[in-house]
Amino acid sequence: MTIDLRPAADIAREVFGAAGSLGAVPAREWLHTELAGDFVFLSLPEAERETAGRDAPLAGLGDTHRVFAVSGAGDAWLIDEEGHVSFLDHDRGADAVPQNMGVGFAGWLQMADVIAQFETADDVRLAPAVRGLLNAICDGLAERFPYSLEA
């Protein structure tokens, strides 16, 4: 099996039924969707509740960042006013700060899609290819990726 890097607009069209161009931020009408185990996109009401309910005072939630997706482990994916995506590690508790992933929403969609394909393949031997694809999305993304590919 091969893992492919697909255009973000194609992923958005397939997953959300999005038509036209892909914006810098998620569309308000998109619904809760699990793209991969650690990439669960939240509907707008869910995202608002998640942003308000997180105890991470250093993260600027509601001010500079808002939650738009969560992981299966309780971590959060944030987006800022400029469309930059960050990761918030729930294990850090109240001391958690956003870790900039170096991608926008389109890059996050591609990252989620690559990881979904990797999960479906269920073959750890593909981890080097996945790291290469993450770095094709954004240089250094494989090093910033918050989860182990070998687990």
Can you put this structure into words, describing what you see?
The protein is of the alpha+beta class. The chain has one domain. The chain is 34% helix and 19% strand. The chain has five helices and six strands; from the N terminus they run H-E-E-H-E-E-E-E-H-H-H. Strands 1-2-3-4-5-6 form a six-stranded antiparallel beta sheet, sandwiched between helices. Strand 4 (76-80) and strand 5 form a beta hairpin. The mean pLDDT is 91.
Work out the helix count.
5
N-to-C series of helices and strands: HEEHEEEEHHH
- Sheet-strand content, in percent, reads 15-25%
Structural class: alpha+beta
| Main sheet attributes: strand count, strand direction, barrel closure | 6 strands, antiparallel
Q: Would you tell me the overall average pLDDT?
A: 91
Lateral arrangement of strands in the main beta sheet: 1-2-3-4-5-6
Question: What is the 3D shape?
Answer: globular
Rg (C-alpha, Å): 15 Å
Give the low-pLDDT segments.
none
- Summed up, the domain count is 1
**Fraction of residues in H or I helices:** 25-40%
Q: How far is it from the N-terminal to the C-terminal residue, by CA? A: 19 Å
| Number of E-state strands | 6
